[in-house]
Amino acid sequence: MLNLIADHLKFNYTVQQLVKDNNYGAANGTDSQGRDTWNGMIGELIKSRADWRWPRS
């Protein structure tokens, strides 16, 4: 599906790495400061281990 969208909108993309726990992301508790903790892709973004980049024109 991503290939079709990229072809239609004329952009390139690279998938660098899948998350280690193979989850999309779900709240899975709270930390010692009362903040929600997340697993999966959402957790990777929150922990700054992944990013989402959109090219600027």
TrEMBL record:
**Which keywords are on file for this protein?**
Glycoprotein, Ion channel, Ion transport, Ligand-gated ion channel, Membrane, Receptor, Transmembrane, Transmembrane helix, Transport
* Molecular function GO terms recorded: ligand-gated monoatomic ion channel activity
Please report a single Pfam family linked to this protein. Lig_chan-Glu_bd
Q: Which residues form a coiled coil?
A: none
What name is this protein filed under? Lig_chan-Glu_bd domain-containing protein
The Ionotropic glutamate receptor L-glutamate and glycine-binding domain extends over 1-51
Record's Gene Ontology CC terms?
A: membrane
